[in-house]
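Q: C-alpha coordinates for this one, please.
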Amino acid sequence: MAGRVQELAAYVRERYDGDASRIWTDAADAQELHANLAALPGFGEMKIKSLAAVLAKRFGVKAAEELVPSHPTLGDVDSPQALADYQSAKRAHKAEWRAARAGSAR
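A: Here is the predicted structure, written as C-alpha coordinates:
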Protein backbone atom coordinates (compact mmCIF):
# COMPACT_ATOMS: atom_id res chain seq x y z
CA MET A 1 0.00 0.00 0.00
CA ALA A 2 2.84 2.39 0.83
CA GLY A 3 4.25 1.83 -2.65
CA ARG A 4 0.90 2.73 -4.21
CA VAL A 5 0.69 5.93 -2.18
CA GLN A 6 4.24 6.85 -3.18
CA GLU A 7 3.45 6.23 -6.85
CA LEU A 8 0.33 8.39 -6.61
CA ALA A 9 2.20 11.17 -4.80
CA ALA A 10 5.00 11.09 -7.38
CA TYR A 11 2.45 11.32 -10.21
CA VAL A 12 0.73 14.32 -8.60
CA ARG A 13 4.10 15.97 -8.03
CA GLU A 14 5.19 15.45 -11.62
CA ARG A 15 1.89 16.10 -13.42
CA TYR A 16 0.31 18.76 -11.18
CA ASP A 17 3.35 20.35 -9.51
CA GLY A 18 2.29 18.72 -6.23
CA ASP A 19 -1.14 20.41 -6.17
CA ALA A 20 -3.67 17.55 -6.09
CA SER A 21 -6.61 19.96 -6.40
CA ARG A 22 -5.50 20.66 -9.97
CA ILE A 23 -6.80 17.18 -10.86
CA TRP A 24 -10.31 18.67 -10.76
CA THR A 25 -9.69 22.42 -11.05
CA ASP A 26 -7.82 21.95 -14.34
CA ALA A 27 -10.68 19.84 -15.77
CA ALA A 28 -12.94 21.81 -18.10
CA ASP A 29 -15.72 19.20 -18.02
CA ALA A 30 -16.73 15.74 -16.82
CA GLN A 31 -14.87 13.95 -19.61
CA GLU A 32 -11.62 15.73 -18.80
CA LEU A 33 -12.08 15.09 -15.07
CA HIS A 34 -12.70 11.42 -15.80
CA ALA A 35 -9.50 11.29 -17.88
CA ASN A 36 -7.52 13.04 -15.12
CA LEU A 37 -8.80 10.59 -12.50
CA ALA A 38 -8.34 7.55 -14.74
CA ALA A 39 -4.69 8.53 -15.29
CA LEU A 40 -3.99 8.39 -11.55
CA PRO A 41 -2.06 5.26 -10.56
CA GLY A 42 -4.40 2.69 -9.02
CA PHE A 43 -7.62 4.42 -10.09
CA GLY A 44 -10.27 2.35 -11.83
CA GLU A 45 -13.95 3.06 -12.45
CA MET A 46 -15.04 2.39 -8.87
CA LYS A 47 -12.54 4.83 -7.38
CA ILE A 48 -13.31 7.40 -10.08
CA LYS A 49 -17.03 7.27 -9.31
CA SER A 50 -16.50 7.35 -5.54
CA LEU A 51 -14.13 10.30 -5.70
CA ALA A 52 -16.43 12.10 -8.15
CA ALA A 53 -19.28 11.70 -5.66
CA VAL A 54 -17.18 13.23 -2.89
CA LEU A 55 -16.03 16.07 -5.16
CA ALA A 56 -19.57 16.83 -6.35
CA LYS A 57 -21.50 16.36 -3.12
CA ARG A 58 -18.99 17.63 -0.55
CA PHE A 59 -16.96 20.17 -2.50
CA GLY A 60 -19.41 21.37 -5.17
CA VAL A 61 -17.20 20.45 -8.14
CA LYS A 62 -19.55 20.84 -11.12
CA ALA A 63 -17.42 18.76 -13.49
CA ALA A 64 -17.82 15.78 -11.14
CA GLU A 65 -21.63 15.78 -11.07
CA GLU A 66 -21.99 13.83 -14.31
CA LEU A 67 -19.68 11.09 -12.99
CA VAL A 68 -21.60 10.41 -9.76
CA PRO A 69 -23.15 6.92 -9.72
CA SER A 70 -26.80 6.34 -8.87
CA HIS A 71 -25.98 4.12 -5.87
CA PRO A 72 -24.85 5.44 -2.46
CA THR A 73 -21.16 6.26 -2.07
CA LEU A 74 -18.93 7.86 0.54
CA GLY A 75 -20.00 11.16 -1.00
CA ASP A 76 -23.34 10.65 0.75
CA VAL A 77 -21.76 10.29 4.19
CA ASP A 78 -22.16 13.42 6.29
CA SER A 79 -22.21 12.10 9.86
CA PRO A 80 -20.97 9.20 11.97
CA GLN A 81 -24.41 7.58 11.73
CA ALA A 82 -24.49 7.98 7.94
CA LEU A 83 -21.06 6.30 7.80
CA ALA A 84 -22.26 3.40 9.93
CA ASP A 85 -25.37 3.02 7.76
CA TYR A 86 -23.29 3.18 4.56
CA GLN A 87 -20.83 0.57 5.82
CA SER A 88 -23.63 -1.74 6.96
CA ALA A 89 -25.43 -1.51 3.63
CA LYS A 90 -22.17 -2.10 1.77
CA ARG A 91 -21.41 -5.23 3.85
CA ALA A 92 -24.93 -6.55 3.17
CA HIS A 93 -24.60 -5.86 -0.56
CA LYS A 94 -21.22 -7.66 -0.69
CA ALA A 95 -22.65 -10.65 1.19
CA GLU A 96 -25.55 -10.87 -1.29
CA TRP A 97 -23.13 -10.58 -4.20
CA ARG A 98 -20.88 -13.35 -2.80
CA ALA A 99 -23.88 -15.62 -2.19
CA ALA A 100 -25.14 -15.08 -5.72
CA ARG A 101 -21.71 -15.76 -7.13
CA ALA A 102 -21.34 -18.94 -5.07
CA GLY A 103 -24.77 -20.10 -6.25
CA SER A 104 -23.95 -19.55 -9.91
CA ALA A 105 -20.62 -21.37 -9.60
CA ARG A 106 -22.39 -24.64 -8.84
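A few notes: The mean pLDDT is 94. The two ends are 34 Å apart (CA to CA).
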